[in-house]
Amino acid sequence: MKDVINQAIMGAYLKINLASDSEDELKAKNLMIKQKTEELSTTLMEEARSISNLIKSMEEQHGPNLEPSNMFRVFSYLRLSIVDLHTLNYYLAEEKNENRQKFLLRSIALAIFELSEDVHHILGKNFRHSLRHFPNQAEIISELDKVGKEFNKFEKEYLSDIKEIRNVTIAHRDKNPVKQIETLDKLNLITA
Asked: Residue 18 belongs to what domain range?
């Protein structure tokens, strides 16, 4: 799970690092990104559907508050969030139009911000409590702690910028057009 989250988040920013490559290198990397994104998104969506079917089956048999079904909801939620990020990144790697690139970057910022708001809660105390049924609970919690630390580092470095992009240009849309344009211009600097 840790690798999938890292791939999704860092994949969204990979385009930034491509700016200094030659045109042929850029095309090759974009093709690789698109292929990997498509493969991973397809796999994750299939897994999310399978998990969703499992949840439905468990709830039909045991009721809606069954603890394991809550845990599977977390797995499915994360997969669906990552599919969204990969899908947006796929189209960003493909897009040539600056306005559409900026829209996709703003959408990625929105998706990352919403995921960051949710991830600490959904992987928190209740989720950890449900892990008590697993024989390797300590190992799983140790891995969750590592993911949490990496996510915290990511948030510390990027979240304030992501939040500004989200709040000013896409989710709440600041009523001040000057502020929106200034924030959009910052996106231009990021992608240049």
From this structure: 2-191
